[in-house]
């Protein structure tokens, strides 16, 4: 299996890359600066299963190089202050255009649990939990919604994995097809990665947006 990876320099993306390589999965990663990436993650470059491309995810030719010959695209793109307002939406608009023509059709994206879809049971707790993010960083929430709207209109075999706050603690988690109002505030990054691998290997959750969150019990 060969994966095109977006967002490989972030906290989740770098762990995702490390896990893919440990599973002998070939990875082609798109980064803004190969030199900077090499300084931060020098050990990655010793692995022959990794190919790093320098480019811009908003540049169509760079995306075409990224996906060429790959079996699936995995996106860990986050919404950072320096990014355009609708970074995810614009990247996925370009991706949808070229993937529908050239393939691969399989695409997995990780986004926030603030993206509500039909079938969700949104509770008052869910709304209160997301209120700080909406107030402090409304563009992140809106961009997540917009990129899902792009995928809903596409003909791709997409899976959007919705997650709350990412952490490095907590090993028990739940997965549901929709937002069902459980009291879940965070999710372990490795739980996300393991779920991505499960979805890739089993080719499940096609055209669905499952929610993965750590389980809280009282």
From TrEMBL:
Pfam families: NAD_binding_10 (PF13460)
Limits of the NAD(P)-binding domain: 7-201
Upper classification of the organism: Bacteria, Candidatus Dojkabacteria
Any GO MF annotation of the entry: biliverdin reductase [NAD(P)H] activity
InterPro entries, per the entry: NAD(P)-bd_dom, NAD(P)-bd_dom_sf, Polyketide_Oxido-like
Name of protein: NAD(P)-binding domain-containing protein
SUPFAM superfamilies xref list: NAD(P)-binding Rossmann-fold domains (SSF51735)
């Amino acid at each position: 299996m060969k994966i095109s990876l977006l967002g490989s320099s972030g906290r989740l993306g770098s762990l995702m890359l490390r896990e893919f390589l440990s599973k002998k999965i070939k990875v082609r990663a798109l980064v803004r600066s190969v030199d900077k990436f090499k300084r931060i993650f020098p050990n990655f470059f010793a692995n022959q299963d990794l190919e790093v491309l320098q480019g811009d995810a908003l540049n169509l030719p760079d995306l075409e190089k990224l996906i060429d010959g790959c079996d699936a695209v995995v996106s860990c793109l986050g919404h950072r202050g320096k990014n355009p307002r609708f970074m995810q939406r614009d990247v996925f608009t370009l991706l949808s255009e070229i993937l529908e023509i050239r393939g691969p059709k399989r695409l997995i994206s990780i986004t926030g649990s603030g993206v509500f879809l039909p079938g969700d049971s949104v509770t008052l707790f869910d709304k209160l939990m997301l209120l700080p993010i909406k107030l402090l960083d409304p563009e992140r929430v809106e961009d997540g919604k917009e990129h899902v709207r792009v995928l809903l209109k596409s003909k791709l075999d997409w899976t959007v994995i919705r997650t709350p706050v990412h952490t490095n603690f907590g090993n028990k988690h739940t997965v549901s097809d929709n937002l069902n109002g459980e009291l879940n505030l965070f999710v372990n990054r490795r739980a996300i990665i393991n779920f991505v691998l499960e979805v890739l290997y089993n080719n499940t959750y096609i055209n669905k947006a499952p929610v993965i969150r750590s389980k809280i019990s009282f």
